[in-house]
Specification:
By secondary structure, this protein is of the alpha+beta class. About 25% of the residues lie in helices and about 30% in strands. It contains 8 helices and 20 strands. Strands 10, 13, 16, 17, 18, 19 and 20 form a 7-stranded mixed β-sheet that branches. A 5-stranded antiparallel β-sheet has the order 3-6-8-1-9, with helices on one face. A hairpin with a 2-residue loop joins strand 19 and strand 20. Helix 3 runs parallel beside helix 4 (about 145-160) and helix 6 (about 200-215) crosses helix 8 (about 350-365).
């Protein structure tokens, strides 16, 4: 007998949730026939069978989270020289090896991402408390799991609640990572947009303003590696645009924003949002942002402290447009105002750079 492991789904995705099995034990399947549908932090992906054969065993049920390299199915009556095809791995193993592969946690292929960082005493404590350390986010240095983290996880289990899966799980991981690594500072300002036309495309105006600001102050269109103390300044501007959905937060990437017309940017943004809503967006379209825009003001809120997610070094948040009195040529007038909140990573960006960047955005919006 041989088993097929969850393949590497690309883009550094370390795990997936089983959504729908297309087979059951005893079924016969053909090579490349749909085997299982899984949900990653990015999209719903259909995994094909690497070979023809009879299904002997399923290693997970719908709703379970499986890590890259862990067994998905076991094939019955497979010849010794049948090594399978395509992605994933077909391997022959004894019953003991099979059990070890399934239960020890993240396999070697994803261990750097998934092995919990915990001392032996903490592991023993977690076992006693019935806590799966793979489901725990450590609050110690470098996300080291502490006794308090295990106790909190045990308490959460005791009081009930549903597991956080898919996009929400990845959001939780990213936010915890940002909290551990980034030194955030947020500065605020307002832009007077009274002169805007009634049906102005607000998001595209913001996109263009960000592109202008990156050209004026390039230090914020960057990636920073705090562990290696290296910084990459990008020549292209790939803007992550936060999209709120019932499933959680998605940040599709609008590529090369300074090299495209307004119409092309709008068409591209509409396509990205439609793909997000349909859960058909490729993982590659959710990777590689050089900075981020969160237009939370379309819902509510004036100012915020949006979170910078490494390796990017800044995020612009825009609040709800309002009308308020302003002084123009010593006269009080009522104008439309858009609030701006810029969070930057002070490890990589100086206060002066951030202030000039925000000023450039403000001037472009007011021009």
């Amino acid at each position: 007998m041989k088993f097929f492991k969850l393949p590497d789904l690309g883009e550094g995705i370390p795990e997936a949730e089983i959504v729908t099995w297309h087979v059951k034990p005893g079924d016969t399947i053909e090579e490349d026939q749909p085997l299982v549908s899984v949900e990653t932090a990015k999209a719903i992906v259909e995994v094909p069978s690497p070979q023809s054969g009879q299904i002997a065993k399923l290693f997970a049920k719908e709703g379970d989270v499986v890590h890259t390299g862990e067994p998905l199915v076991e094939f019955a009556n497979v010849e010794e020289d049948d090594t399978g095809t395509v992605v994933g791995k077909i391997e022959q193993a004894s019953d003991q090896e099979e059990e070890e592969q399934f239960y020890i946690g993240a396999p070697p292929e994803s261990r750097s991402e998934q092995t919990p960082r915990a001392a032996p005493a903490i592991r023993a404590f977690a076992k006693k408390m019935g806590v799966d350390l793979r489901q725990v986010t450590g609050t110690g240095p470098n996300q080291q799991i502490l006794a308090a983290d295990v106790e909190a996880a045990a308490a959460s289990t005791a009081i009930g609640g549903e597991p956080v899966r898919g996009v929400r799980r990845q959001m939780a991981i990213n936010m915890a990572k940002a909290d551990q690594e980034v030194v955030p500072v947020t500065i605020f300002d307002d832009a007077d947009i009274e002169h805007w036309q009634e049906k102005e495309d607000i998001t595209i105006r913001l996109v263009l303003a960000i592109g202008h600001a990156c050209e004026a102050e390039s230090g914020l269109n960057a990636w920073f590696d705090g562990a290696r103390m290296t910084r990459v300044l990008h020549k292209h501007i790939d803007l992550g645009v936060a999209v709120d959905t019932e499933k959680g937060l998605f940040v599709p990437v609008l590529r090369n924003i300074t090299g495209r017309s307004r119409e092309d940017l709008r068409e591209g943004l509409n396509r990205l949002r439609a793909d997000v809503k349909a859960r058909t967006i490729p993982p590659s379209e959710l990777q590689g942002a050089t900075l981020t825009l969160s237009n939370f003001g379309t819902i509510a809120g004036r100012y915020a402290s949006p979170i910078v997610v490494p390796p990017t070094v800044c995020i612009l948040g825009t609040g709800k447009i309002r009308r308020e009195p302003v002084v123009v040529a010593d006269q009080v007038s009522i104008h439309k105002i858009i609030p701006l909140s810029l969070t930057f990573d002070h490890r990589a960006v100086t206060g002066g750079e951030a202030a000039r960047f925000l000023h450039a955005i403000k001037m472009h919006l007011e021009s």
